[in-house]
Design goal:
CATH topology of the largest domain: Rossmann fold
Largest sheet: 5 strands, mixed, barrel
Distance between the termini: 90 Å
Number of strands: 27
Structural class: alpha/beta
Number of domains: 4
CATH class of the largest domain: Alpha Beta
Radius of gyration: 33 Å
Strand order of the largest sheet: 3-6-7-9-8
CATH superfamily of the largest domain: P-loop containing nucleotide triphosphate hydrolases
Length: 676
Amino acid sequence: MSNNKLDQIEQFKEFLETHSTNSIKQIIKEGNKYINVDFADLSKFDFDLAEQTLEDPKGSIENAEYAVEQLDLPIEYKIRVRFFNLPKSQEIRIRDLRSANLDSLIMLTGLVRISSDVRPQVVSAKFECPSCGNILEVSQEGQQSFREPSRCSCGRKGKFHLKSSKLVDVQRIVLEESPEFLVGSEQPKRLSVFLKEDLVEPKMEKRTTPGSKVCITGIVKEIPILTHSGAKSTRFDIIMEASHVLPVQETFEDIKISKKEEREIIKLSKDPKILDKLTDAIAPSILGHREIKKALVFQLIGGTRIVMGDGIKRRGDIHILLVGDPGAGKSQLLQFISKSAPKGRFVSGKGASGAGLTAAVVKDEFLKGWSLEAGAMVLANHGICAIDELDKMSHEDRSALHEALEQQTVTISKASIQATLMAQTTVLAAANPKQGRFDPDLLIPEQIDLPPTLINRFDLIFILRDLPNKELDEAIATHILTSYEKKAKKEVEIDVPLLRKYISYAKKMIQPKLTEGALDIIRKYYVHLRNSSTSTDEGIKPVPISPRQLEALVRLSEASARLRLSKEVTVEDAKVGTALLQSSLQQVGFDKETGQIDIDRIATGIPASKRGKIIAIKEIITKLEKSGLSVIPLESIMAEAAEKSIKEDKVEEIIEQLKRSGEVFEPKRGFIQKTG
């Protein structure tokens, strides 16, 4: 060994003895195979040694591990030394990596986009010379293909016998720049990161699942890009060999709040108009839509997640769907909310696939296996995913959302990968009517090309309509035109940074419990609404509300209590929640034919009034068939239906529906016949 190497080993030994003896003993006791060294401590101990570590990280880390071996420790395995908390000068964005950063120790922060299977990799191999029996060891680190000795000291070339090889576990992840670091229309850059040995142990692997935000310290390396023929080209790709992995959760709860800001938040919470002030803070550049903005405040705050005694989980996230006319401000609201949340993601239905929203299995070109790639719902875990033009997605892609919305997980079972990823994500979605304008007389599933099973998973659904109104039109025109004069940055008491911190404090500090009074209000509202409806002429009773809406009501009431920083959900909170839910149900669940709220208008797409008519038409067809008519004239059905006050257009609509479902067919024009 050179004198410099020996000196550095001695320096590291002294540092470890003075700073890490107790922690090393604890590490050995716990059975760990690594030591985490705070780089700030190393800089305080010896600035020159710290600088040498940054300039020559590979050699310095090896010397630090030699120093550990010289300590009197009761172990037989090698202890790895892993540095973290590098100085700001070494914190670099992926897009800023250049050739000058090669072989240096740097720190990157980003989202894990792809995670491969853990696979063994050869790091060294021993060969035996058949001529002289000499054992030759060849390092395989940094090699893309298995390397054999070129020649032996006895003069022999090639055809050596492989005696043994040393294997380590390796995993490749793809790190993507976090959205908050991007400026303007920048696209996030990616970097392949390789994890080895203890960094891929089961307890460590959980830190690097797709969607996780991590801070990785490691050494930047170059690898040659192979041509189509397999030869090395003159161009190189950049990778990182990880030395330390630290999970970084960027959620509302992780926002730092000073004591001064905490006092301001508590003062605001005591204001009786706090809900109005928070509502004003939501997209102040968009005039109106106060009921929707109020719902968005509740969505940002959310309810509490509960794990039941039998293991069933009840989500606390409030999902909202906006449906309405073009130009009503849906997209702007989505953009504002996605940018206000720390882990906000904005996607458009036109450019999003099911795999892009949830997760996908992709081919790993490096390790020649399969990798798991996280989609927007997983990447926004503990955050908000805003999906614009949800109706423009294909049916197959939309089906991937069912599990993510209710169970808040994404299950993948493809190739050799079977995994369940967390997607505790709040969803704010928007959809446009097929005909351009929303028609209140038609069912929502008929207008926005979404299955009722998916629509029913949203807690609140609001209709945005663009109707002429002289006073409102004048106010909107003034608001927009004034903004063009650069005068109208609307003054709001609570700006976006304060809004984020207020919500962060509420979510972190407040876990409200339902009082008896609140439970009584919610119970009475649910039971009253369930039993207030009357049967239709056909004897079918509408279902105004379902248990799914009851759970939504609880979440809204909890959000109202959190908003006030109250640890109890009071009667007033329950009333606020019921009023908001009633407003949503009145917009999307009101059946003009019965004059009642019918949740089946969105849950099944067939309200009680229509379901009753379908049953009546089926009974008419069965009656006419029993009278001896195997082929039934439509005129006869129309005549029988008229006696039951069913209009001709409704009869035609139901007949067409029965034909599509295969229950009847048309053997000739003007006649129908039952199948089977």
